[in-house]
Amino acid sequence: MFDTLPQTQLLESSFSSLPNWENENYDEIIYSFMNNCRAKKSIDIYHNLCSTSQNIRDSKEFIENNFTPYMIESLDKNKESILTGYYEPELRGSFTKSEIYQYPIYGVPKDLITVDLSSIYPDLKNYRLRGRLDGNRVIPYYSREELSKRDINAEIICYCDSKIDKFFLEVQGSGRVTLDNGETIFIGFGNQNGHKYSSIGKYLVKSGEISKEDISLQSIREWFKLNPSRVDEVLNHNSSVVFFTSRDKAATGSLGIVLHPLRSIAVDRRYIPLGSMVYVSAKNSYERVAFAQDTGGAIKGAVRADMFLGFGEEAGEIAGELKAPLKLWILLPKDKVKSKI
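Below the sequence we write its predicted structure tokens.
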């Protein structure tokens, strides 16, 4: 699981070297660790520590006696070491289409094909080929712009009242919808059209519409308000489209665990296996243990993480502003002595 990968290495550290370690809530860490161990991938990493963590007297002592922090260092200087934030958006919607609720939130299209190549090419275990059939050939699936001009052969989960909110729902990967009948439904990632994620924030910066210093979720929303005729142009810059599925509970990450604010992060699983316990250091408020429980199309690189900040407007405000230089340590059982991931 921690075999050598190019452009990445692990440097053995100590808990005393972790910024703000002495101010952590160790009991909360153990609670989150036990919850994290509900996933098989976590058990594969931490083995018997998952069970022994349920019967301990001193949480801090247990962590320091059983784990070693390794600082993750990327040798690829083209990759940013950045912590950003994401949240569970709350949309307004209806099961019935109307003048107010006119934007469909789609389930997975019936003609979308996902090909898993790992059984033939083990090195591609973290990749999925997505497309559609054209005769007997698999060709790329429709882009965002192409989908906007055609009927989609998919279930419509519900309709929402904002094309922009729907787009940001795709960026976040999951959310909840408050319906016009008072009911709340949960929706999560179902699949994706196979196109590469492209940041509309970077597009607006490159176009000179918003300065790099001012770019945020809030500034992008404000720009859309001032430039309604260009909404489609900007949204179509990101050809990637996410399709959803109905859920019976709040935001759940790729690990299958319900996400916890400030303790769950999305990572690039080519470098950090899902289920891993890590230490995050970025600004004073974000020096803490977190768990790799999710992934995201924009999360690329070894020292790159997206922290889950909760649901609703306030969480969205914080997530939209969070972008900070990041340092990451992975906490491995002491019997896993490795120099590289």
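Residues 49 and 66 are 8 Å apart (CA to CA).
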